[in-house]
Design brief:
- Among the domains are: about 220 residues, no CATH class; about 70 residues, K homology (KH) domain (GMP Synthetase, Chain A, domain 3).
- It is built from 14 helices and eight strands.
- The strands form three sheets. A three-stranded antiparallel sheet has the order 1-3-2, covered by helices on one side. A three-stranded mixed sheet has the order 6-7-8, with helices on one face.
- Strand 6 and strand 7 form a beta hairpin.
- The longest helix is centred in the first third of the chain and has 144 residues.
């Protein structure tokens, strides 16, 4: 082989070797890059997997926590149900004890009646012996008559028979008259019983104290607040006394006004549940609760009208009717009494085949003026009749209501007589009147009216069982010097117009608030 060919071969081999080396280098570099990409992909997948596991564990943890909270709430609810069941069991035990005592009294009464029957049986035996003696005497007289002539015996016998017949006729007439009177009285009783049949209602009224349960005794300190500012703010906003004593996990609320007390109970319950208790929050919650109370009153009024069968009442009358549920007279709910009066009046009218619809409306509305915020200037029945007329009620309804304010000897329409009778029946139901409590409530209401009659007075609350009268005045109308004079005037007027035990403290409060906004 020639030298040029050898050189070309060597060069070709060298080029081939270089190409092979380059290809090998590129292959190794490509393999390294692929290995790096695989490693990076593996790390990314591991990171993604860890993140997914972390999120899943977080979701599972949240789910478990929610389940634990739900289980805890369920346990607390069950605990409350157990407490309520225990309370109901205690109430049932008390009722059973009362029933047992009543049965003992009944057994004693039956024993007494048995002794009385034995005495009557002995008296009947004695009477039977007397009749036997009379029979023997009559036989002897017949024997004497037998010794007379036939005409004389006949004449004497006819005279005696005539006298006995006249006596029998007199007895029959007297018995017929007595039966007629008894029948009339029995018919009247039937009308009353038919009217009252099926009319049931709770007659026991609430007292003047309500209890608010707390989750723990530590909550009492938060309710009282620093230096008592929270409890003062709550009393000022609601007009209710808050009594914090040694009663475990409870605060007592005292007020003669059931509406104020109900608002205070609900507002305090919301504050305790929310946990944010300070004067500004207290005022906000109390105002919100007042609005909710009006909404509840409207629902109660609609329910009472539906139960009695009255439709088409004006919204204002429905609201006033519902507010009656928060008011008491002689310890009896005014709404319950109005409902009973309406049902009884309607039932009596139906039994007498009269139109019962106006009487049911009149019975339901005859005391709505008591729930109006305006003080009564006249008889409650007259004011209620004016309200009913103003809001579209018929003359038959308003005339029946006005009959409640008429003197007993004044002539009334049939509807007026039935409504007066129905109201008396509702008042005479067992437990429908508590005179001492009503006199106490009337005295507190009169004290508040005395204070509200003065110009510049914004609110007045009788608290501490009537021993203190808190009077809130408008600061822009009353300088500090006038508050002292106002307190003295109110105290002198209370001394002159009211009778009360002990002393009444008149406290005039004047509050100035400065408000500014940072923009």
């Amino acid at each position: 082989m020639s030298e040029p060919a050898t050189t070309a071969t060597i060069v070709g081999l060298a080029v081939l070797a270089a190409v092979l080396a380059g290809a090998l280098f590129l292959a190794r570099r490509r393999a390294a890059q692929l290995e790096q990409r695989l490693e990076r992909t593996r790390r990314e997948q591991e990171t993604t997997l860890r993140e997914r596991l972390r999120r899943r564990m977080r979701r599972e943890e949240q789910r478990l926590r929610r389940e634990i909270d739900e289980r805890r709430a369920e346990v607390e609810r069950r605990a409350r149900e157990v407490d309520e069941a225990r309370s109901e069991l205690a109430t049932l035990r008390e009722r059973l004890d009362e029933r047992r005592a009543g049965l003992d009294d009944r057994a004693e009464e039956l024993t007494s009646r048995a002794r009385e029957l034995e005495q009557r049986a002995r008296a009947l035996d004695e009477r039977e012996q007397q009749l036997a003696g009379f029979e023997q005497t009559a036989r002897r007289k017949l024997e004497e008559i037998a010794g007379l002539s036939e005409e004389e015996a006949r004449s004497q016998l006819l005279s005696r028979v005539e006298q006995e017949a006249q006596a029998d006729v007199a007895r029959v007439l007297a018995k017929a008259d007595e039966q007629a009177r008894a029948s009339a009285e029995e018919r009247a009783r039937e009308l009353v019983l038919e009217a009252m049949a099926g009319i049931r209602g709770a007659v026991a009224g609430e007292g003047t104290i309500s209890v608010v349960r707390l989750p723990s005794d530590e909550m009492k300190g938060r309710v009282i607040g620093r230096e008592g500012r929270n409890i003062r703010a709550l009393e000022l906003a609601t007009g209710v006394d808050l009594l914090v004593d040694d009663t475990p996990e409870a605060i007592l609320l005292s007020s003669w006004d059931p509406l104020r007390r109900a608002i205070a109970v609900r507002a305090l319950g919301k504050l305790v549940e929310d946990g944010r208790i300070h004067p500004a929050r207290i005022e906000e919650v109390v105002e919100q609760t007042r609005e909710e109370a009006d909404e509840e009153a409207r629902e109660l009024g609609e329910a009472a009208a539906f139960e009695v069968g009255v439709a088409g009442l004006h919204e204002r009358l429905v609201l006033l009717l519902g507010r009656l549920s928060f008011l008491r007279d002689h310890g009896h709910s005014l709404l319950a009494r109005a409902r009973e009066t309406a049902l009884i009046a309607g039932a009596v009218a139906d039994a007498m085949r009269l139109d019962g619809e106006p009487l049911r409306r009149a019975g339901l509305l005859h005391e709505v003026a008591r729930a109006d915020k305006e003080p009564l200037r006249t008889h409650a029945a007259l004011a209620s009749a004016d309200l009913a007329k103003r809001f579209g009620e018929r003359a038959a309804v308003t005339q029946a209501i006005r009959a409640l304010a008429q003197p007993p000897d004044t002539p009334r329409t049939p509807n007026g007589v039935i409504l007066v009778t129905a109201r008396r029946m509702a008042l005479s139901r067992p437990g429908a009147r508590h005179e001492n409590l009503q006199r106490f409530i009337d005295r507190l209401a009169a004290a508040e009216e005395i204070a509200l009659a003065h110009e510049g007075v914004e609110r007045a609350y009788a608290v501490r069982a009537g021993r203190e009268l808190r009077v809130h005045v408008r600061a822009e109308e009353f300088p500090d010097e006038r508050t002292i004079l106002l307190a003295r005037e109110i105290a002198r007027e209370i001394e002159r117009r009211l009778e009360y035990p002990g002393q009444v403290r008149v406290l005039v409060l004047r509050e100035t608030r400065a408000v500014s906004y940072a923009v």
